[in-house]
Design a protein that fits this description.
Layout: E1 2-7, H1 14-23, E2 30-34, H2 47-50, H3 63-74, E3 79-85, E4 90-98, E5 103-107, H4 115-120, E6 123-128, H5 131-144, H6 150-169, E7 178-181, H7 187-200
Parallel strand pairs: 1-5, 1-6, 2-5, 6-7
Antiparallel strand pairs: 3-4
Length: about 200
């Protein structure tokens, strides 16, 4: 099994890059795991306590479970991936049955911050996007998909998102094997990744 880690700041276009890579690969040979599914279970906290959590800090991620699931997949076993609700700031209790694939893509803003997880990736990719562009995308997504209002998104951006990006995410570029600038000219980088995967397959 080939495991690929795709990181980058919020709103940088990781999902777009993942979809472009998958698009031209044989169907059923690539699986995707999102770091967002592995936010820690916060059932023991009230909703008001949950909204105060810094979700952009590595501590908010259940890396132990993510690593355990990757190991099980690598050993040929299916896993039950948690389902997370950004509206409730908690896991829903549901799971998604995820089967092993020849290629597993793990994507998320913080996945390169954990040394043990980082060591499991055969290829490490960092998607880079302009700061303003990322903020605009984040605003649009959080307001339309996650029921936030503009003041809440901007407050979070200033108090946690940007400082955490500068402290934890941007420095992870040094661990990346490939840095993809997320703009319309990134087709070459995507093709390179795809050709590496095809060779391994």
């Amino acid at each position: 099994m080939l495991i690929i880690g795709i990181a980058g700041g919020t709103g940088c276009g990781k999902t777009t890059v993942v979809n472009k890579i998958i698009k031209k690969l044989p169907e059923g040979e690539v699986g995707v795991i999102s770091q967002d599914s592995y936010y820690k279970d916060t059932t023991h906290l009230s909703y008001d306590e949950r909204i105060k959590i810094n979700f952009d800090h590595p501590r908010s991620i259940d890396f132990d479970l993510l690593e355990q699931h990757l190991k099980e997949l690598k050993n040929g076993h299916a896993v039950h991936q948690p389902v997370y609700s950004f509206v409730k700031h908690n896991r829903t209790g549901d799971t998604i049955l995820t089967h092993p694939r020849k290629v597993m893509i793990v994507e998320g803003i913080l996945i390169l911050t954990n040394p043990e997880l980082r060591d499991m990736f055969d290829i490490k990719i960092f998607v880079h996007a302009d700061t303003d562009e990322r903020l605009i995308r984040r605003l649009k997504r959080d307001i339309t998909e996650r029921g936030r209002d503009i003041d809440e998104v901007l407050m979070r951006y200033q108090t946690t998102l940007k400082p955490m990006h500068d402290q934890f995410i941007e420095p992870m570029k040094e661990y990346a094997d490939i840095i993809i600038p997320n703009n319309k000219h990134n087709t070459v980088a995507i093709d390179i990744v795809r050709s590496i995967i095809t060779q391994k397959l």
